[in-house]
TrEMBL record:
Its cofactor is pyridoxal 5'-phosphate. It is an enzyme of class 2 (transferase). SUPFAM superfamilies: PLP-dependent transferases. GO terms for molecular function: diaminobutyrate-2-oxoglutarate transaminase activity. The gene is ectB. Pathway: Amine and polyamine biosynthesis; ectoine biosynthesis; L-ectoine from L-aspartate 4-semialdehyde: step 1/3. This is Diaminobutyrate--2-oxoglutarate transaminase.
Amino acid sequence: MTATPSDKPDIFETRESAVRSYCRSWPATFARSQGAKQWDEDGNEYLDFFSGAGALNYGHNNPAVMGPLVEYLQSGAVLHSMDMKTPAKREFLQTFQDLILKPRGLDYSVMFPGPTGTNTVEAALKLARKVTGRQHMLSFTNAFHGMTLGSLSVTGNSMKREGAGIPLTNSSKIPYDDYFDGEMPDFLWLEKVLADSGSGVDKPAAVIVETVQGEGGLRAARAEWLRALSELCKKHDILLIVDDVQAGCGRTGSFFSFEEAGIEPDIVCLSKSISGSGLPMALTLFRPELDVWEPGEHNGTFRGNNPAFVTATAAIKTFWADNEFQNQLADTIAELHQRLDSIVEKAEGASIRGRGLLAGLHFEDTEVAEKVAAYAFENGLLLETSGPEDEVIKIMPALTIDSRDLQAGLDIIEAGVLKFAPAAAKAALA
Ligand SMILES: Cc1ncc(COP(=O)(O)O)c(C=O)c1O
């Protein structure tokens, strides 16, 4: 049994449920964090290319959000408010409308479901069913939408699905972009079954999609594929839900990950970095015509997390009031992808996955990614794996990371890749 410095049994191992997972890959006890770094309680430093699975897009303890948060906490203002009105919530809604929705020409009603990603997905599925009167959902191979039953029913991963313990019904999986490695025309099956009343596939209420599959292996959908999906949904009167829980809030280079494709989903799910601070918060956005909820028909105790409204407002005002942050982000994305290009040239069977700062390296040898991630941790870098067989390393630094930290983390990744993946023939000859 691992002992703490004081030689007491490790309470995490003796008391915490076996379901814990990240602490098994990264057995440090993290005590402090700032920007793109964390320190364990022994003072060891770690570069963080995990960013709270996308909940810390602006880095740890960003002063831009921490100042207003501390001020709010000390002011005697309301912390918990269900869905009652508070000045903090008013300020958030106004800021979100003025700086996020209006400049993008988007008109969405804003719903506060419970504070997690799976809460917004559940609300989206429920609303789509209520609006259309249909039960069936379509989702994609390798999709990940969360751990509650509705979200699991549209998730791909078999291990997670089995955890439900009951049949996960009312949904079908359809091939994500490039599932057949370019050998099948896009949406061949879907077009056919939707047009065929004898296909036996119930007309779905909605299609739910991630523009980049954060947990399922970092496949990124092409813009034209997303546009074709959106067109297909319109043609058949099916709602399009974009789950932007992980890819949203700047991760792919724009506030919403679907901006590049120029599509306007009917429903959008946001969580993770919407609070800008790591505090729990989620939004479900939908076209106002779809707002058919009865008051209180969907509710939850933690929809009014005022400290999260405060940090969300501060983050939006700091990073999204003009184009400066987005331009810097474009440079960081270019720097990351240039370096990834050079790494894959040196390693056999390695290829780049993802988009923006939601990127990854896929290895043909499915054991390489986990070895690289373990090597990264030994060398002071938090790096997660993704994909059904953990065959992809997932590179997800803070969007605010500076070039020095980015390159330092990539140096560790490159060293790990060169250690565990076979050298590319070209590189081996050189
Ligand atoms: C795309 C997507 N949707 C939903 C979720 C679920 O979010 P949460 O873990 O906050 O419930 C995740 C979590 O990783 C996600 O990546």
